[in-house]
Hints:
Blueprint: E1 7-14, H1 17-40, E2 45-46, E3 53-56, E4 66-68, E5 71-72, E6 77-82, E7 85-86, E8 93-96, E9 101-104, E10 113-121, E11 124-127, E12 131-135, E13 137-138, E14 147-152, E15 157-159, E16 167-168, E17 173-179, E18 193-195, E19 201-203, E20 216-222, E21 227-239, E22 247-255, E23 257-260, E24 265-274, E25 278-282, E26 296-299, E27 304-307, E28 316-323, E29 327-337, E30 341-342, E31 351-354, E32 359-362, E33 365-366, E34 378-381, E35 384-385, E36 393-396, E37 401-404, E38 413-421, E39 424-435, E40 439-442, E41 447-449, E42 455-459, E43 463-466, H2 474-498, E44 505-511, E45 520-526
Parallel strand pairs: 1-42, 3-12, 14-21, 23-29, 31-39
Antiparallel strand pairs: 1-41, 2-5, 4-9, 6-7, 6-10, 8-9, 10-11, 10-12, 13-16, 15-19, 17-20, 18-19, 20-21, 22-24, 24-27, 25-28, 26-27, 28-29, 30-33, 32-37, 34-35, 34-38, 36-37, 38-39, 40-43, 44-45
Helix pairs in contact: 1-2
Amino acid sequence: MSDGARLFYKEIHVMPQHLLCVKSCLFLLVLACSTKGQGYQLPPKIISTFKNDYFYPRNSTLTDASFNCTAQNGPIQYQWEKDGVVVQNSQYVSIDNSTGTLKFVKMQNGNYGTYQCFATNDNGTSLSKPFKVKEASLRSFPTSSIQEVQCKQYEHCIVPCRNKPRCVPESHCKVRWKIGEGTNTYAPINTRVAVDNNGDLHFLWTKPDDWTGLPYLCEVSHEQLNKSVVGSQTSLRIDKTSMALEIDPFSVFKEDGKALVGGRGVLRCMFSGYPIPDIQWTSPQETIIKNIPSKYEISDFGRVLTILQSTPENEGFYICLGKAKTKSPQNVSLNVTSAPVLIGDNQMRDMTVTEGNNATFRCEPMSLPEELPPTQPLWKKNGVNLEFDEEKYILTENSKALTVIDVQKSNTGVYQCMSENSEGVLLKEAILNVIDPLRTNISTYDIATNIAYDNITTTGDTLTTTVKQTESQTVIYYIVVPLVVVVLIIICISIYLYRRKKGQYRVNEENNANQHGQEMDLEQTPLQDG
């Protein structure tokens, strides 16, 4: 105990033990309920997630073009912005500010752009990650005359899809080759015939009956638009040979892949030879790849490998091996990338802080290896860029740490950290909830008691205890405290039923008076009769 500490005696009144216990339980129950009530007044936090891009056709009636923005800690009002401007209800766009729904009935040219949702209550504003709405489109082939491709029997022959029109997004587009103009006959895809990702048709070895006298036409179809276009008419001239010679495997096409973390990475390779070689894939860890649900999928007769849920560990060089009597390896690479990420448990965490203290948020964005570094963090509060004032905010560690100085109730809100790299945008939020300490006066009565405080004796009639709420997670308020209260009430009821006789007790309490938060040791002993 320091020199400034003093001990003194204070006379108060207390109840018999079983009644005091019941009263304490009721006090804790009230405390828990009041604490829980504070949690309900937190600023909002958006829980909806959106993809980076959405595609819709122009001037078409839409049935599935709606976005639902949902946030916790209501009641909440929602607002949508496009390219930084508030979206208003119009003939073809509807906004419901109470539910957060944005719906497009018909897409006009001015509706394409970058959208973001804002969720607001009395204590702050939460932001969604921005996303882009783009046009789904398929253009036409230019007019051209028929061209001839010369092939040799048993050898590889490629028929290019000339002037293939732009089709967006590629994931909704498909290329097939028609045989004959105006027909519904298509070139069959099998171990010998393939179409690469550029739309070119490959006869991995050629047969004379690959030419029937009808031209081949490249058809590009768009699933979402329910539209297809044809062009690039081509005839074949196949030079025949009387004897088939074995041809060792050799690569005729390969395509590297790129995938976002958690997304699908697609690798392609294609081999010619006679007879057609088998294809085997090997991972960067030098293990042979088989079809594994939720991990790998091999399709198109072995020519396509899909990594279903890409992770940084999937990045690297894969070996696509053409196998016949001889082998022909081909390296195909996968680049796994992402927007900036936060690593570690102490990044942008929600805080509950009492007035007068400091609050520090950490935001340390990182790019994956081999990626361009992220931009310096940009800080916002409730969706508005922070104006830095040394009396209110301090930025340290190259803007990766934001400290709110001497927090007050006005500092309550949602703080946002934003950063970006070549692959996307990071938006991470954290709630700052500023509260007063909870103070409770407890008066007890019936029996006089002496309390020791340090060589001085005084007399009073009330014991005042200050309960200070500390920084804690909401789960403590909503789960732990109520459970503890229930257990205490059960114990108190048991004591009450067991001890029905009133008694007299002395309470000795020592307090270290020089500390800001008081720690008390209570000892209760019965008074002797007389």
